[in-house]
Specification:
The protein is α/β, with parallel strands linked by helices. Helix content is 26%, strand content 19%.
Length: 176
């Protein structure tokens, strides 16, 4: 089965430019991810991420509230297309949305991206060694993983998703 998403990082253009239809719909045609429930019950990984100022966050410490962990990169078109929707979801307070950049090398790229977009609720977390990508092993960005309040995986989504749909509300309810 094919999943829409980015699977490599390169200085060269990895994807064609968005069509006019995709531009008008915010890139929705690239938001065709695939759900995977085969890891249901797995705990939050004991991995730490950092913010641009160097503050450290241990992911395993996030137990207590449902968390949607989103792996993304500045070079990934579906990642960029879903970011405003993830910000809106984070603003709603339904679930804690944690976006973690998988950009390697220059931590200024995701920081500049966040500054440019002026997100209301998302914070730019960094994973410069791509520990989370290796942990989840999907090989595709974006990858989003929902954890319940006990810190157990509910499902993961490989590829982009339209986070504004009624289906999304039902899927997130599984972790509440």
């Amino acid at each position: 089965m094919l999943a829409g998403g980015c699977d490599r990082q390169s200085d060269d253009a990895a994807q064609p430019q968005a069509s006019e239809g995709a531009k008008a719909s915010g890139g929705a045609e690239a938001l065709t991810g695939t759900f995977d429930r085969s890891h249901k019950g797995d705990p939050l990984p004991a991995i730490t991420v950092k913010d641009p100022a160097g503050k450290v966050l241990d992911l395993a410490s996030l137990k207590g509230k449902p968390v949607l962990l989103n792996l993304w990169a500045t070079w990934c078109a579906p990642c960029i297309a879903e970011m405003p929707m993830l910000d809106s979801l984070a603003t709603s307070g339904t679930v804690k949305v944690l976006t973690v950049s998988q950009d390697m090398g220059d931590p200024a790229k995701p920081t500049a991206f966040f500054a440019d977009k002026s997100f209301k609720a998302l914070e730019p977390w960094l994973d410069p060694e791509n520990e989370l990508s290796f942990h989840y092993g999907t090989g595709t960005l974006p990858t989003s993983v929902l954890y319940d309040a006990q810190g157990r995986e509910v499902w993961r989504l490989v590829g982009g998703h339209d986070w504004t749909t009624a289906e999304t509300g039902k899927l997130l309810a599984e972790g509440l």
